[in-house]
TrEMBL record:
<dbReference type="InterPro" id="IPR012341">
    <property type="entry name" value="6hp_glycosidase-like_sf"/>
</dbReference>
<protein>
    <submittedName>
        <fullName>Sulfoquinovose isomerase</fullName>
    </submittedName>
</protein>
<keyword id="KW-0413">Isomerase</keyword>
<dbReference type="InterPro" id="IPR008928">
    <property type="entry name" value="6-hairpin_glycosidase_sf"/>
</dbReference>
<dbReference type="GO" id="GO:0005975">
    <property type="term" value="P:carbohydrate metabolic process"/>
</dbReference>
<dbReference type="GO" id="GO:0016853">
    <property type="term" value="F:isomerase activity"/>
</dbReference>
<comment type="similarity">
    <text>Belongs to the N-acylglucosamine 2-epimerase family.</text>
</comment>
<dbReference type="Pfam" id="PF07221">
    <property type="entry name" value="GlcNAc_2-epim"/>
</dbReference>
<dbReference type="InterPro" id="IPR010819">
    <property type="entry name" value="AGE/CE"/>
</dbReference>
Length: 159
């Protein structure tokens, strides 16, 4: 919340955030500079799993679980979906929400579909159903490798 739902993933040994971590190597495959919106939207879905587990135990889930799941979803859409005009979720953004690594990697869009479906299931809000369909259509158009029976793992900034 404090950073518009742009989640920092890098910390020192005392758990102090390291927002400039790998600034000189921004495309590092596992420890990229900036925020990774695919993780944000994934964490939103995981919050919804906790929400559902609490409800299954007849416990009242804290309101922040749903609120923050929506916040992480919205931050991903705001910062990472087609920010440069081409469809797809960019791999990373800086702390102002501007794209850093513009390639489109397969897994974030799959996480996005899972979260959209989960949010639709919990809220009944049709915007999440619309996003689910938008992202599924994107996968059909760009990510599915019909010739080899698989998915493209990474696309350039123009898909």
């Amino acid at each position: 919340r404090n950073n518009h739902y742009r989640v920092n993933e890098h910390f020192d040994t005392q758990w102090n955030p390291l927002p400039d971590y790998n600034k000189d190597n921004p495309a590092h495959r596992f420890r990229a500079f900036g925020g990774t919106p695919g993780h944000w939207i994934e964490w939103g879905r995981l919050m919804l799993h906790i929400h559902a587990a609490l409800e299954a135990r007849c416990e009242q889930p804290p309101a922040w679980l749903l609120e923050d799941a929506k916040g992480l979803f919205n931050a991903t859409v705001r910062d990472a979906w087609a920010p440069d005009g081409a469809d797809g979720i960019v791999y990373t953004v800086d702390w102002e929400g501007k794209p850093v690594v513009r390639e489109r990697v397969r897994w974030p869009i799959v996480e996005a579909m899972g979260t959209a479906y989960a949010l639709y299931t919990v809220t009944g809000d049709r915007q999440y159903e619309t996003w689910y369909q938008t992202w599924w259509d994107y996968c059909i158009k760009y990510l599915m490798d019909y010739e080899n029976g698989s998915w493209w793992q990474e696309l350039d900034a123009d898909n």
